[in-house]
Structure formats: C-alpha cells, structure tokens
Amino acid sequence: MRELAVQRLIIDLVRGHNGAAIKLAHRFLVGVPDLLVKLPGSPAAILEVKLNHLLVRSTVVRPSVTPLQWKFLKLFAAAGMTTGVVSIVYDGDYVGAWVGMKETINESEYLINRKMDRKAVIWSAVFQYLQSGGKQ
Fold first, then answer.
1. What's this model's pTM, rounded to 2 decimal places?
2. Which of 93-109 are b and which e, b meaning 16 or more Cβ less than 10 Å from the residue's Cβ?
3. For the segment 29-70, what is each residue's pLDDT rounded down to a tens digit?
C-alpha cells in the first residue's frame, strides 16, 4: 500500500459518490496538504493522507505530518474550513483508518476491520468525517 494509491482511491471514491476531488500537493510544493474534496451536502475539506505501519509494542500512532502541513491545515480550520489528516495503519491484512486533526492517535480510535477490504475501511472513515463536517 502506497500513500499515492490511497490518495487516488479517495479521489475516485469521492467522484464516484457525485463529489469533486483533486490532488493539491506534489513533490515541488512544500507544506500543502494532499487533497481538496467535496461531497454533495457536506462542506469542502482539505485532507492530508499519511500511511503508518502499526508498531508492535505501541498503541499510539503519530502521523508524519510536517510542521508546514499542520500550519496549513490549522490556518484553514481556523477560517472555518473542514480539514483533517487521513491516517491509515496497516500490517498485512490488518488495516485501520482514522480522520481528524490530532497529532497523536490511540489505536482504539481507528476504524479497524480485518475482514473488510481496505477500500471499504478507508472510505467509511473518510465519508463519516466529511459528512460530520470535520467533527471527531
């Protein structure tokens, strides 16, 4: 699983639900989060996607969001826009997804399902966050 593949998946899923989504960031644009997404009936959102391996002895995940990315996300959140980090943890068949604005996430906060496919887990977490207008 690669971060770009997750970004593409989110874009495709949002568009498949009659929404709009584009990739904002590229390797020459430092600090800008990855995606701008909009679902019908929900506010537009700026999302940063991060993949994390689940650490064996840890129950806490710290997505590797850069200080510039946090600054960008917090700036737009303060102006009233929905912003969030899409944090994906995985290890083999195990996949978990969480979306929000915390720098440290407990493993128990992730939407996790060993039997559900990765696409369904990621979409469920993103969809819930977008529908809530960014409420955790």
1. 0.90
2. eebbbbbbbeeebeeeb
3. 778 899 999 999 999 999 999 988 766 666 788 888 999 999
